[in-house]
Each structure stands twice: as structure tokens, then as C-alpha cells.
Amino acid sequence: MAFDFDGNDVSKYKKDLSVFIETGTASGDGVQVALNLGFDKIYSIELSESLYSHCKSRFAGNDNVHLICGSSEVELPKLLETIDEPFLLWLDAHASGGPHIGEFMDLYLPREISSIIKFSDKFKDSVIMIDDMNYFKDEDVKLDSGKTTFEWCLEIESLVKELKSNGNIEYHQSNGQAKSLILVSN
User: Fold this and answer.
1) Is there a domain that residue 121 lies in?
2) I need a surface site. Which of 64, 67, 85, 105 has the fewest CB within 10 A?
3) Is 51 in contact with 38 (CB distance < 8 Å)?
4) Residue 149: partners with Cβ closer than 8 Å, 6 or more residues away
5) 21 and 89 in contact (C-beta within 8 Å)?
6) Which residue from 178, 128, 183 is spatially nearest to 26, judged by alpha carbons?
7) Each residue of 92-137: pLDDT tens digit?
8) pLDDT tens-place string over residues 151-179
9) Rounded to an integer, what distance in angstroms lies between the CA atom of residue 174 and that of residue 153?
10) Which domain holds residue 58?
11) In whole angstroms, what is the distance from residue 24 CA to residue 102 CA?
12) Secondary structure of the chain in the HEC alphabet?
């Protein structure tokens, strides 16, 4: 999670949403921001068993925090089957060095979004936020997939539009420490 720890990035789009869903828990800073912002239900999916265990300890006693260990490509569709109210979805599940494991964003994110397209009806009043888009939006270079970063961004925007057809896509510049660019559909 690269958005600011004060939660300004999320609070800008939170509206009256009470459910926060995150992929890529990492050390749990996103969960903490969601707690600070007053979300009633917080779900976070983490692939790394050690980071998941760390967060289980960190948030023990918080009954509104639900942590899931596994691949978000598999676990997010299962979770969405159980959610019956609008939510804010923060997509940030990808390898980023250090203890953060998994595939790189350019390979993983299209599959992660595609895995939940069948739940597009649940996104009508929900918000989608995708972190770390600055790595692809700043310059046009060729990726390992053979696509250019420009083509990849268009693919992600197209998938997000398919997921939330009534959404308006914008890019939000975070004021957080990493100055991340966040794709938002609200």
C-alpha cells in the first residue's frame, strides 16, 4: 500500500461506503488506514503466509478485520460472492520487492480483474482503486508481455470499464510518501 498513511487518498473516494476490500495486505498499513477511516468491515487478502501471520497478530481483537491468506485471483471472487453491499476495492496485490511475493503487476493485475468480471453487478455503487499505476503511466516502454505500458494501461482501463460500466475513470496523484498514481473508477 503506497497511499498516504493519513488515509487522504481513500477518504477522498470513500463516500458513505462501510466495506473496505484490499488485495495485497503486506504489513497491514492499508487495514490500519481503513480502521482509522471508520470502515465497518475490512477484508484483506495476502499471498505471503508470513505477512498474513504478522497481520493476524497485528489486528487480533479487531472483529471487523477479516484477513484471508491466498491468491487474490482465487480468493477475491469467493469473497465477492458473500458481499451484498457497496464497497471500496483497493487492488495492490503484486510483487514489489522485499517480503512481498507474487507476480509483477503487469502480468497479475489483468488476471486479477478478469477473475471478478462476473461480479460487475456488485460494482454499480462501489469504488475501484488500483495502486502503483505510475510505473506504467509515466513512460511508454515495452513490457515482458510484449505490450507497451501505454497498451497495458488501455487494457486495464478497458477491464475496469467492463467491471464498472457506470464508472468514471480518473488518475489520482497520491500525496503519500511514494507519490503513487492511483487509477480510480467511482
Assistant:
1) yes
2) 85
3) no
4) 106, 135, 136, 137, 139, 140, 141, 143
5) yes
6) 178
7) 987 665 555 566 778 889 999 999 999 999 999 999 999 888 888 8
8) 999 999 999 999 999 999 999 888 765 55
9) 18
10) 8-185
11) 10
12) CCCCCCCHHHHHHHCCCCEEEEECCCCCHHHHHHHHCCCCEEEEEECCHHHHHHHHHHCCCCCCEEEEECCHHHHHHHHHHHCCCCCEEEECCCCCECCECCCCHHHHHHHHHHCCHHHHHHHCCCEEEECCCHHHHCCCCECCCCCEHHHHHHHHHHHHHHHCCCCCEEEEECCCCCCCEEEEEC
* pLDDT, average across residues 29-51: 96
Within-domain flag for 170? yes
Q: Based on the structure, what is the number of domains in the chain? A: 1
Indicate whether 3 belongs to any domain.
Answer: no
Would residue 89 count as lying in a domain?
yes
Pairing of strands 127-130, 88-91: parallel
